[in-house]
Amino acid sequence: MSVWKNLSEKTVYENPWLKVNLADVELPNGRHLDHYLLRQRPVALATAVNTDNEVLLLWRHRFITDTWGWELAAGVVEDGEDLEAAAAREMLEETGWRPGPLRHLLTVEPSNGLSDSRHHVYWSESAEYLGHPQDDFESERREWVPLGEVPAMLARGEVRSANAVAALLMLHQLRAA
User: Fold this and answer.
1) Same structural domain for residues 96 and 10?
2) Total-model pTM
3) Residue 163 region by backbone torsions, left for phi larger than 0, else alpha for psi between -120 and 50, else beta
4) Smaller CB count within 10 Å for the chain: N or C?
5) Same structural domain for residues 20 and 105?
6) Strands 54-62, 67-71: parallel, antiparallel or unpaired by DSSP?
7) Where would I find the beta strands (DSSP E) of 27-96?
């Protein structure tokens, strides 16, 4: 079995969002290499699918890649916060909709060759609109989008984030059955 071994690592940069570490990695052939990695806090995401089989999404711009796309409400889990509670909080803050009982959909590691970040996705079959979102600056608009349109949206590149792609494919499959 070919296993890379992390013999040691040291932090070279740190802020409240992440740590950049430098690791001394031993390869299976005994060779060593320096490998930079990101240590990040967990992320929680949430959405809802209504009785019309529509999923609640956010249309937003990402300045880092200068792209627009559909995403799920998401954010960093605060210290000591439950994953499900964080997902519900993010959905309410970013959409104005409070989810009903949440169910875990999946956990993904969007860039596990570089980062230890885990994204925990939850969904609900109901949501209650409480008003304009507190964090409305995070998206241009929030819409209920038919799940049946997901494959075409993916093909057109309208969903770019790996966590949203995975979640929407899973929800499309679950609700198509």
Assistant:
1) no
2) 0.92
3) alpha
4) N
5) no
6) antiparallel
7) 32-40, 43-48, 54-62, 67-71, 73-76
Q: How far from 40 is each of 102, 110, 122, 136, 140, CA to CA, in Å?
A: 24, 12, 19, 25, 27
Q: Can you tell me the distance from the alpha carbon of 144 to that of 54, in angstroms, rounded to the nearest whole number?
A: 5
Query: Do 113 and 35 share a structural domain?
Result: no
Q: 171 and 153, same structural domain?
A: yes
pLDDT-derived band of residue 177, with 50, 70 and 90 as boundaries? low
- Confidence class of residue 30 from pLDDT cuts 50, 70 and 90? very high
Quick check: 59 and 140 in contact, CB under 8 A?
yes
3-state class of 79 per DSSP? coil
Neighbour count for residue 101 (Cβ, 10 Å) = 10
H-helix or E-strand spanning residue 119:
strand 119-124
The total number of structural domains in the chain stands at 2
pLDDT in tens, 75-126: 999 999 999 999 999 999 999 999 999 999 999 999 999 999 999 999 999 9
Q: Give 138's pLDDT tier (boundaries 50, 70, 90).
A: confident
Sign of CA dihedral 113, 29, 3, 33: negative
